[in-house]
Amino acid sequence: MATKIRILIVDDHQLVIQGILCSLKEVGDFDVVTTNNCDDAFQLIKSHQKNNPFQLLFTDLSFDNSTKDTNLDGGEELIKAIKNNEFNIKIGVITGHTETNRVYNVISNLNPNAYLLKSKCDVTEIGFAVQKMLANDYYYTHEIHQKIMRRNIIQIQMDNVAIQILKELPNHPKISNLEGVITKNDGSILKLRSIETKLANLRVDLNANNNTDLILKAKELGIID
Amino acid sequence: MYKKTTLFIYFILFSTFVFSQENKDVKDSISFYLKSFKENKDLNLLKKAVLIAEPTNLDSLKRELNIKYGIYGYLKKDTTSLFISQQNLLKLYLESKDSFALAKHYHYKALIFRLKFIKDSSFYYYHKSKKISINLKDSLEVARRLLSMARDQEMQRDYLGSEISSVEALKYIEPLNEIRYTANIYNNLGLVLTQTKRFAEARENFLIFKKLNDKKPTEKERKKANIDYFINVGLSYADEGKHKKAVEYYKQGLSIKGIETEYPRRYHTLTDNLAYSNFKLGNKTLALNGYKKALLSREKYKNLYGQSISHSLLSNFYIFYNDKQKALFHAKKGLQISLKIHNSRRILENLKYLSQLTKGEKGKQYLMDYIQLSDSITKRERNLKNQFAKIRYETEKKDKENNSLKEENNKKQLLLESEKQQKIIGWLIAGVSILFIGFGISIVSNRRKKLLFEAKLQQVEVRENERQQIAKSLHDEVAGDIRMLHLKLSKANQLDEAEKLNVIKENVRTLSHQLSSESFEMVSFKDQIINLISDYFDVNFKIKVEGIDNVNWLEVNNAIKRTLFLSIRESIQNTKKHAEADQINITFSETKKAIFLVIFDNGKGFDVEGKKNGIGLKNLRERIVEINGVFSLESKLEIGTTIKIETPKNGN
């Protein structure tokens, strides 16, 4: 018989936990465990690692119920501890935090499989996130996705080399022709390999399928004129 | 102008060409004259050469010519030539300050006086010439002058003076390994010693003289000197009374080939001396033959001086052998000749013989003349001796005075110098200490500044921590309490109030969020700026950042970064709230000591003077000033607002 997928939910608000539980019930038949602090969550994951481990974890970022004795103070700490122990568990963040600083830090440093916002979350979204997470894929809710995109745009705008590449790309039929045209901040010439790496990163950042798409997107987003 | 210069250059070239051409001609004709002079020794040729050289500027050539002219003038006893050359040399010295020319000038002046038999003046100028040569460190010239002086002194019977001069001359000349003059000095020493009856010593010196002579380059020179040697050694034996020995030497001298024709004077002397020694030995015939031989030969060579000697010797001879007639004849002849040539010694001798030979009034007269002359001669000799001594003494005294003056001067100079040095050292020490103090003060003040700055930065950081604390408690406690209240209200079905409370809760959360900040160790400054901008960026509110990579943020103090971050956030918030701008440009730049931040928006702007600035701007300015930064704000209506911030990187 197929064992049920085990999910752990950590949140300091009972209401939120209830909400998530309800939603998950509608999504499928899961073996769900809940706790309202990070230390307990970590212990649960650790103790069940050998037999009957959890496959998924949903956690908040900030916890109001931390005391002096609290070891893991907040979601970031919990995720970091899990990553450090290399437990095989997919992590989703369900939180109210939308500040780019925090979002960016969580996503770029802790690399969770999902980032959901409590305010916008519904059954469909949770179901979608669970599916993606189980497939070791990523799902960020629309607003977060927008934020990351915007951040990427800002970063690209501040990146002199990236702007040069985006501007010069349409003028040259081959990428190899860009070598010698693009210069770094100190005036030295950027090698073809570096240009190609940069282009690949840009495509990822701007979610573009190919170079033509990249230019179109860059123009659309106002990165280049 | 150009033409003029070229013309001028042409002129110069032409004139120098002519000039050098002229010089060449002069040299040619001079060398021609010198050549012909070498052949026939006509002084007029030298004189012409000197006259040709006179108007040119060939100083060294002129000097050579005049020296040559002078010396040959002396050898030919031509005082006019000597006078001209001596004058020219003085002129040369006055024109070119050539001390050698001056030394020669004095030398020739001495020679002129010597030719005029004015011994004391001659001695004086020798002395002057010698002194200049001493200053020029020209040892050979010094020795030559000393030798001349010694010769004069010897002749004037100042034997002690002559000996001193000779020894001094040796002192100068011996290091030079010179032969000719060294030999002559030894010879003179020998003569002096003979005269002072130190015969053995004298002969030692003559021996040195002979040995040196043997080294002389030409046969002729050696021959001449050898004759002198035999004469002088022979004389020394004769004076000692050892006439047999003397005869040996005289004979050796006379046996030298060609002596009679080549060196007649020496030949006469030798013959005379041999005859005298024979006379003393009692060989009457040999003596008489010798005297007669010498007299004949002297008459042949018209040597009056020699003749006078011969006559007085013969007179002496005849007196000894009581042939009064002949004695009288020779004495009279001798007196006549010696009077002609002013040879006082011979005059005296002959007067003595005459007084012995003639009786009565005439004899008395001769005796009186003799006594008078003898007196005057001894007087003169004594005077001369005294003169020599005086000249020596006075110059030495002057030298001593000069030396003591010099020493005094040197002492004074040294004293002045050391005073000067002490002054300089003093100033240096003062300067160094001032520098040191200044340096110390600057270090101290820099340190103070740095410490103050660091203290301020620490203050900023402490406040930052406080803010974090407040943010945390706002979030954790206040928001938590509000949440509890919210739950209670919800349960009590007071939904309106619950909704209002929710708004308050959101506000508190935003406030907490505003207060909290991420540490720059966790997230880099650039990333934080990007995140900050991301929060405000919009298609209708573009934010452009430039030059953020120009600053090495890792080296910038966190408090400064925090201040800059907050300034940017405050500015963006102000712009977004009030300016109605659609573009913000943020530009970073840095120098070695400071970071510059310019924030420009294209909003509607505001009157900086008129409206009282908001609390946000005030805080902003305070924060910048707190870390020793400079804050400036410019705003133009309808154009936009520019905020310029400059913060030092460290305390200096």
TrEMBL record, chain A:
Domain Response regulatory: 6-133
Keywords for this protein: Phosphoprotein
Residue numbers carrying 4-aspartylphosphate: D60
GO biological process: phosphorelay signal transduction system
Designated name of the protein: Response regulator
Species whose genome carries this gene: Polaribacter marinus
From TrEMBL, chain B:
Membrane-crossing residue ranges in chain numbering: 424-444
GO molecular-function terms, A-Z: kinase activity
Alphabetically ordered keywords of this record: Kinase, Membrane, TPR repeat, Transferase, Transmembrane, Transmembrane helix, Two-component regulatory system
Coiled-coil portions: none
Superkingdom: Bacteria
GO biological process: phosphorelay signal transduction system
TPR repeats: 227-260
Gene3D superfamilies: Histidine kinase-like ATPase, C-terminal domain, Tetratricopeptide repeat domain
Domain named Histidine kinase/HSP90-like ATPase: residues: 563-649
Protein's name according to its UniProt entry: Tetratricopeptide repeat protein
